Amino acid sequence: MGCTVHTTTHALSHTERAHAQRATLYGPSLHLNHQQTSSTIFAPPRNMAAAGRRCLSDLPDELLQRILFLVPGKDAASTSVLSRRWRSLWLASGAVHLDSRRFVNKQQPERNRKKRARRDDDPPRNNTNNMLLHRVDEALFAATAPITRLTLVVADDGDDDLELHVEAADVEDSYRSRKGRRRLSFGAMSSSVLRVLRITGSASPSPVLPRGTFPRLGELHLNRCTVPLPDLQSTIGAAPKLSTLHMESCCLKQQEQEEGVPVWRLRRLVCPAVSDLVFADCKFQWDHEQIGLELDAPGYFRHQT
Amino acid sequence: MEVDKGKGEAEETRKVAEADRDTVTLKSSDGKLFEVSKEAAARLSTVLAGMIAGGSIDDNGTDLKQIGSEALENVVDYCNKHANSIPSAALISSSISFNTAPFKEPEEWERKFVDRLSHDALFDLVEAANFLGMERLLDVTCHKISEMMKGKSPDQIREVFNIKNDYTKEELEEIRQELAWAFYDD
Questions:
Q1: Domains identified in chain A, total number
Q2: Binding-face residues of B in 69-128 toward A, CB within 8 A
Q3: Which residues of B93-125 are buried (b: 16+ CB within 10 A; e: fewer)?
Q4: Domain boundary at A72, A93, A114, which?
Q5: Residues of chain A contacting residue B161, judged by C-beta atoms under 8 Å apart
Q6: Which of A66, A71, A138 is the closest to B138 by Cβ?
Q7: What is the pTM of this model?
């Protein structure tokens, strides 16, 4: 028997769209050629095993973007100077990760400040968190692919009463269409594209959870945040596909006792779609006696305390 | 006539045996054969799943001319050893874009699995995983590479990953100004 592989329609159906897409984007480096109907369809353009020292640039753009998707914003952006090919790869990676700790006490060098006309909406330079928001703003504005992952780490060094908000209904579109770009805020966030949200805050002030609806939000990671339970509940309620909820070093606050509402109801967290749940090093700040939190998460399989 | 009949029966038996086998034999570009659990292969790789379902698996070694023996060994190792703890590839890649599935951090054993690889082996494995439609393995390998890029200056990244700078000095300066925010603490 020859060592040949005959593709079937079935085999193709899984990958043909992906590969067809790849074909249009990266024609020459396409591995799988479906036009070829002879017996060995997996004939490679080159033999990977025979190549000498491999380098990152051997990978197709698609994979490099996938890698950049996981690289923090500043590092990702700075890859544009690597070589011509890398110039705009990071812009299409679909992710923005920024960490305000990277901006602490870093001033723009004089040469850049002179050459770049100062805009009205430039943040005050002494305000780290404003700076962070401004970077997010710039990164979102520059992005060429829909942002599906937004990661913000908020420094706890300042006195800034920071609220994280994203105003956009669609992060990318609203930033593109808006004339005078406004400062990024999470206030009325209603992101239809957002799938992962990580907020790393400080105990005080704590970032305020975004409000709005998140039809596709799959993961919510909160680190060092103080969150009123009702706020958390409303965020979870607005994210029907939220399957991962990770809270580390968070403090859950009780809501004001309302008349006629039983106490147990005030300490209940309902997360219907969550299957991966982590509460690590979390505190509960209840007014009265120490009562735990009642969790209603039919799908969860992991729970730490 | 007798002989032909016997042959036919043998063929029949072979076919049945093939259908019943719980492993798949894969053949690397350099002709080495690897056995992988059929169930794991189908679960972790959309391409292998399609081939198994479509009956295009060759009992004597399904030819994967794209993949060298070292990469294929890693792929098979990943499938055979760790198949149980991984969600279905079909589930993860029900849509073509990686952007649509939330990225999950690699597990401890997955980190170890990629940590031991050389650069060459890692890049080969990324391509093999991409070629075979193994979403989870792609996540894990891409995550490893992204970790290697974090916190490094462009010069360091060029050195580590053997990237040739083909910009002119003027072009570089232009980009640095454009992206001042990414560089001003350099």
A1: 2
A2: 69-71, 96, 98-104, 119-120, 123-124, 126-128
A3: beebebbebbbbebeeebeebbeebebbbbbbb
A4: A93
A5: 55-57
A6: A66
A7: 0.55
The residue of chain B with its CA nearest to that of A66 is B142
Query: Do A77 and A193 share a structural domain?
Result: no
Q: Which of A193, A196, A187 is nearest to A133 (CA)?
A: A187
Let me know if residue A54 belongs to a domain: no
DSSP three-state, residue A280: strand
For A82, the domain range is 59-93
Q: Compute the distance between CA of residue A285 and CA of residue B108 in angstroms, rounded to an integer.
A: 33
Q: Are residues A197 and A143 in the same domain?
A: yes
The model's pLDDT over A63-87, given as tens digits with 9 standing for 90+, comes to 998 898 888 777 888 898 999 999 8
In this structure, the answer to whether residues A98 and A63 fall within a common structural domain is no
Residue B111 gets which letter from DSSP?
Answer: H
A71, A203: one domain: no
Nearest-by-Cβ selection for A106 from B100, B123, B184: B184
Same domain as A188, residue A292: yes
Contact A167, A114 (CB under 8 A): no
Q: Does one domain contain both A196 and A87?
A: no
A187 found inside a domain? yes
CB contact under 8 A, A80 and B179: yes
Tell me the per-residue pLDDT of A255-267, one tens digit each, with 9 for 90 and over: 666 666 666 556 7
- Interchain CB contact of A25 with B (< 8 Å): no
pLDDT interval class at B129 (50, 70, 90): very high
Interchain contact, A87 vs B175, CB within 8 Å: yes
Contact A147, A194 (CB under 8 A): yes
CB contact under 8 A, A42 and B63: yes
Q: Which CATH class is domain B9-150?
A: alpha beta
